[in-house]
Amino acid sequence: PIPKGVEHPRIEFYPAEGRISGYNSCNHFNGSMEASVGELRILQPLAITKKMCPSSVEEGFLTRISRISAYRRDGQRLYLLDKTGKPVMSLQKTD
Asked: Cβ distance 56 to 77 under 8 Å?
């Protein structure tokens, strides 16, 4: 859960280019990814800006993103899964 008053993280996926970018509620990030049907791996390390953040959301977000190995879509929601198939993160599509 994201605490009240903290901006929600965002991730943008560019599978054809093999890259991701986003915002982790404090800093912007970008990096490389590998994806195929149902599988997703975010390659480490990510390039991350270095703004000092009082919120603990950033650390949890970065820990979770490193555990992603698969995904599942359900309508407008994207579930990012670990290697056992357990949801690590749930994202809602926005424009």
From this structure: no
Dist CA 17 CA 84 (whole Å): 27
- The pTM (predicted TM-score) of the whole model is 0.86
Instruction: Give per-residue pLDDT as tens, 20-46.
Output: 999 999 999 999 999 999 999 999 999
Residue 65: CB atoms within 10 A of its CB come to 21
Which DSSP symbol is given to 7?
A: P
- Residue 83, sorted as left (phi over 0), alpha (psi -120 to 50) or beta, turns out to be alpha
What are 6's two structure tokens? 């903290």
How far separated are the first and last CA of the chain, in Å rounded?
A: 21
